[in-house]
Specification:
globular; 3 helices; 3-stranded parallel sheet; alpha/beta
Length: 71
């Protein structure tokens, strides 16, 4: 779902209405959106870059996508 910029209740509703959170990236610090998705109970698919491996456990709170296989 592509919603554009969301804040507040609209953003929370979008997370709660979703089935999965996909975050494919080649370069990142510590994305708040991954933390927000996890807080809303979504399974997260993301690459292992930046600060993501510090808070993310593969196959426990989501899945790590191989950065070389991002479609």
């Amino acid at each position: 779902m592509f919603t554009g910029f969301l804040t507040g209740v609209s953003k929370i509703k979008a997370y709660l209405d979703a089935h999965i959170f996909l975050f494919p990236t080649y370069n990142e610090g510590m994305p708040n959106s991954v933390l927000e998705a996890m807080a809303c109970g979504l399974p997260v698919l993301n690459t292992s870059v930046g600060g993501i491996p510090d808070i993310f456990i593969n196959e426990v709170n989501g899945y790590i996508i191989d950065i070389n296989n991002i479609p």
